[in-house]
Amino acid sequence: MTRFRELRLQKGYTQEAFRKIYNERYNRNYTSAAISMIEHGKRMPELGALIDFADFYDVSLDYLLGRDMPGNQDRQIYRQLRDIMERLDSIRVDEGKSELPVVKEDIEMLGCLLQQSAVLAKRVELEDNAWYRF
């Protein structure tokens, strides 16, 4: 079963109901036969329609196309850790204005821990192994 069909079923739409709503919302002219072919992997919609499908179901294109599998979660974790580290670098230690005491050493320690976590996430991604093997 393709993600197109899986997502439609999760939303509780029949093919016909989905087709009507989708065509109306995105100004498309898909037939029931075309939707069926897409759901069975016999036809691939053009890029604009793919974007519309992803928008309709509120998922990424990778997920819609079946590329967002558990191995890609490692890549996402790595990116999220990098984002946190970048935000952490931008924190200004302004004692007295914070509800909790912010100590420069604590921020540096947190940065080191995040960096080590990012290194581990990258190794897991490259080695395609579970994190607990490292």
Question: Could you characterize the architecture of this molecule?
Answer:
The structure is a single chain. This protein has 134 residues and is an all-alpha fold. The chain folds into 2 domains: 3-64, lambda repressor-like DNA-binding domains (434 Repressor (Amino-terminal Domain), Orthogonal Bundle); 70-133. It is 66% helix and 0% strand. The protein contains 7 helices and no strands. α6 (70-89) runs antiparallel to α7 (104-127). The model is unreliable at 130-134 (pLDDT under 50). Residues 33-64 form the HTH cro/C1-type domain. It comes from Anaerovibrio slackiae.
Précis, in short:
Pfam families: HTH_3. The chain is mostly helical and 134 residues long. The protein is built from 7 helices and no strands.
Question: Gyration radius, to the nearest Å?
Answer: 22 Å
- N to C succession of SSEs: HHHHHHH
Shape: elongated
Number of structural domains: 2
Uncertain residue ranges = 130-134
Q: What kind of sheet is the major sheet? A: none
Approximately how much helix is present in the residues?
55-70%
What portion of the residues fall into strands of 2 or more residues?
Answer: under 5%
How many DSSP-defined strands?
Answer: 0
Structural class: mainly alpha
Chain-averaged pLDDT? 77
Number of helices: 7
Distance between the termini: 35 Å
